[in-house]
Amino acid sequence: MEDRSDSFTTTGCTWLRPLSALTGIPLDQVNFIICQLFGLAIAFWFRLSLSPHRVSPTLRHAVATFLGISFVTFCFGWYSSHVLVLTLVCYVIQCQASVQNVHWYSMLAAVGYLTVCQVSRVFIFSYGVLSTDFSGPLMMVTQRITILAFHPSLLEYLSYNLNFMSILVGPCSNYKEYVDFIEGRHVQSKLKKLREGSSEPNGWDAISEPSPVRAVCQKLLVCVGCMVWFFTIAKAFPITYNVDPEFMTQASFLSRLAYAFVSIQAARSKFYFAWTLADAIHNAAGFGISGVDKKGRVSWDLVSNIHIWEIETATSFKSFIDNWNIQTGVWLKSVCYDRVPYYQTPLTFALSALWHGVYPGYYFTFLTGIPITLAARAVRRNFRQYFLGSPAVKFAYDVVTWAATQLTICYTVMPFLVLAVEPTLEYYRSMYFCVHIISILAIIVLPQRPRSSKPEKHCVYVCVCLCVCVCVYMYVCKGQAEQRTGTGQRLLCGSNKESSTGP
């Protein structure tokens, strides 16, 4: 869903090149969309014709795996072999490593292989060259491999990691819930939890297999709206204009803030589209029930990756993050935040940046997110209680914090979208590094809770050290780009990176 007039190379299938030329959508994205739409149709067939009541779990595992491998091969060609190699290597580790160390070995192998592939693709083979980005499936497989706490059979392992519902863009689901879905226990396991948590008869045990058609149709309508929004607003407000030299020097500060807000609002729609469509595919296959309310209405958001309304109305940095790329947030919390004894926030952001890739803009985005998160906690802790006295004052507080949150998000994610060294530094310089300065001052000046003040103060020094490392890394990347192009031409706005995984 990105308009590229440049020549584009792909290792995936080229059957749809005429459609790509007709629509102006890059071939890799056309392949992705067609695969997902085909996957949606296949998902209904999978639920109805390959129901657990009709066929064995083995057949369902095999079909889901075969379709997933077919999809990733169609989109990425021989690059899909990286996904298969990583999956098989980590299965061997699962079988051979001790229980005490298997999670460390799996994490090292998965993240290490992912990083090597990203480095080789970006800096060795195609820096600044338009080519298919095969890291998306690798990123999804890395999540599933490192969160797995069971020892399944090879077929179950392949099915969980490579199934057609989530191979291209995720999300990462819980292994037990996935196996319950394949074996036909998914719905009843959710209803059992509701029965056990209720003290009154509610009839939930009498509910038959619910139909996902309503939920799927609602999510497809959201997808259509996102596509319309992207192709109208995003085309009128391109991200590249934020770092246009003339715009940065001549437009006022408020004008640049307003443009950043509108352009990034429009850019989000492509992530909304990809994740909502993936959610609809899971639901169409019968996977995704999270519960039933008191009126008997089924909720289909178990594997949802975004809550759009909560994102657009977020009044805090944390609220925004909690509702964006939800399943990745769950994964980061499970494998990093809950496991490390100190510096949970900076280490989690660091892992998130490493998982996303090796473009300099990613690291500046997540590095910027560390002091903002700590500052937001301090501000909320020190001031929020003074604005809860009346509904009018609370409403005014919410409006101000909503505006601050949305503009801060725009400031934070701009490097994630422009990717490269020079535009990132030029943009932040044009914004006077204002959010960085305000955040660090808030952490230092505002009172902290006694039990956590020392670690949070130390985070400031960690941020400074990381900032120095990232700046050095960014200039190294710049030097490599200059050596390859001879001109030091800037890489702007995902010109060789179009990811649906998101920040």
UniProtKB/TrEMBL annotation:
Pfam families (UniProt xref): MBOAT
Gene Ontology terms for molecular function: acyltransferase activity
Principal location class: endoplasmic reticulum
Classification via InterPro entries: LPLAT_7/PORCN-like, MBOAT_fam
Transmembrane segments: 30-50, 107-130, 220-241, 361-379, 399-421, 427-446, 458-476
Subcellular location, record wording: Endoplasmic reticulum membrane
Gene Ontology cellular-component terms listed: endoplasmic reticulum membrane
Domain of life according to the entry: Eukaryota
Membrane topology: Multi-pass membrane protein
Keyword Ribosomal protein applies: no
Transferase listed as a keyword: yes
Alphabetical keyword list: Acyltransferase, Endoplasmic reticulum, Membrane, Transferase, Transmembrane, Transmembrane helix
Protein name: Membrane bound O-acyltransferase domain containing 1
Species this protein is from: Astyanax mexicanus (Blind cave fish)
Chain's gene name: mboat1
